[in-house]
Design a protein that fits this description.
Six copies of one chain form a homohexamer.
Chain A (H helix, E strand, L loop, with lengths): L1 E13 L8 H8 L8 E13 L11 H16 L2 E2 L14 H18 L3 E10 L2 E5 L4
Parallel strand pairs in A: 1-3
Antiparallel strand pairs in A: 1-2, 2-4, 4-5
Chain lengths: ~140, ~140, ~140, ~140, ~140, ~140
């Protein structure tokens, strides 16, 4: 069992807030992340898959295939977009990095499985100081 | 003459577009940076000042004073904000990194001079691949 | 279960040595780290906590609360200090990165639990080449 | 149980190809990595060992000993070399990062055990975007 | 006058040697870089252009145009290639980073000028420890 | 004229203070850097030399020779040392990064000249946020 990781990055706007809360309550809980006019980040995304090494190719999976899945299902939808307004799989969801990581997992788990890959970890760096990892339900 | 540099960072949303242009024209010139719902970055800012080394302190300037100027005049105004909507010194200006660097220079040159510092360079990294430097009018 | 990580950094002096050993013995075992007049590092500290994602906030925990715990219990005590002379929770302990990681765990486990967080990992980078991770007793 | 990691780096040439495949087939499967005249990378290698903290030294293991093992068994053999032509332990093996990580594990597991260390992970970064981790057979 | 920089990266093999020198002499002068079976690097390339800020766009130049020039004239020719065997503009030249920087300058100066840009600096990082900068003939 | 840069790093302890000032005055001017029991950093040092490219070797200078000068004259004297107590060329000098950069220039300018190199810049990163550059007297 070997683990391989592909790193991609993208830039997006978002805001943390609940429409059922007042500005004051949002500011209290979400701090400066609740700015009504949005803010944004250069997100870094690491996707790790695991599997056996193919004796034919020496690969667990072709990382350019993994990259293509990440680009098609995630990067093309989120890069230079607003996570709260423009992204289909985030509609009605909070754009916290935690929720975002889980939703990215849900988008790519199946397409990666079709490549013969088992998704192991979705890791997102929102800022250099804030990182989230999700390893699936189990 | 010695050069000292302070690095700070902040996260902000922005958009490149001209209101007098159509969406198509904006898309053609500014590409994905023209997304109407904004996008954002983790900006990195390096401010370089130059001067003689004080025999009393061994400093060109106290970098914590330099940092305070950057925080008061720039970071507090742009961090977790929308450069096009929330920032007084960017009102009516394009939020390209080039224009942003010039406007940051204009904000901090005088306050740094009051510290006895000569501003030498404002450098901004918008993404890891895109960097802008401004050395003033001369 | 989602894992969230906060990165902080600080600068400190320390020395590896045993008072019951001769300078020669200390030099033999601890090498240049035994320099009697100290040396120092820019330490990087990653604290990872795990938990369920709150449906109210989308957070496992508010990373600014996690950051406050790290600052109050660790950074304020170690930044620009001597680990062997100035730090209460390192008194009488060796300032190896391994021991330091365990002691940091012991300092923050309880305060983080009061935030509703389960501490998962304390990771310290002493130099770019040397990294230590501690995941608790179990 | 504490985990300690040593980071080393080296520069090497290699090529992904099967001699029993045509150039076209190699190009199709391995893409630009199949270039007949080789290409190369600045590889980064992290070796993680785990163990109890010695009450005598505060160490799981002396990282300079760990570094010496990595240098003797790996770096001296691969740095500024061709992985496919010059490296004894890669002879007849594919130089995919996956296979390379497993073979590095096989080279250093025993020498590290003689230091009293249990090898936990071999991690290789081939490019900033491609990373492989191997945790051994179990 | 504002300076804008685009960062790109590529992986290539090369060797430092003179065919008119013996292996011993090559080894003496070029050290491990003279390995006959090649070695390689993940090169990082920064291209800096300077100019006035357009009042129409806020740009010195569109960095995606600059990136396209770098890709067409440099990256497509050197990425996953052998600098000594595969690259037209390096034929008969030494593949030292110094010479490489000058030759890259010669390739892109004119195409960048057609974009309305004045090339200011070609900077190459061969390894994290070795960096070369070329600012043109004047 | 081409510029080549060698990056080295080292870890050291130091303190900013004047013996003719009270603890209070030192604390007021130098802040936490005046801690009487020292603190320390992982310093990063970039040394840039400039010159013409040799047609014989393709080098401005052999970077391993440059590295040897830096190691002999600087790294061996400062690594894992106390800048204020252990370093001959810092005796009686303030260990601010500004003064340190000037003194490093003074140590290596002549030895580099003997290699046929003209020293162009000494750059020191004390922490990721604080950087100093010195380009000599002219």
């Amino acid at each position: 069992m070997v683990y391989i990781t592909r790193k991609e990055s993208f830039s997006a706007a978002h805001r943390l807030s609940r429409p059922d809360w007042s500005e004051e309550k949002n500011r209290e809980v979400f701090g400066k992340c609740s700015n009504p006019n949005w803010h944004g980040h250069n997100y870094v995304l690491w996707v790790t898959v695991k599997g056996n090494v193919s004796s034919e190719t020496g690969f667990v999976a072709n990382l350019s295939d993994v990259s293509n899945v990440i680009k098609q299902y995630i990067i093309d939808k989120v890069d230079h977009k607003n996570l709260d307004l423009d992204v289909d799989f985030m509609k009605g969801k909070k754009s916290s990095t935690e929720v975002f990581a889980v939703e990215i997992w849900n988008q790519i788990e199946e397409p990666l499985r079709k490549l013969g890959c088992n998704l192991h970890c979705v890791k997102i760096q929102e800022t250099e100081k804030n990182i989230v990892e999700y390893f699936g339900k189990n």
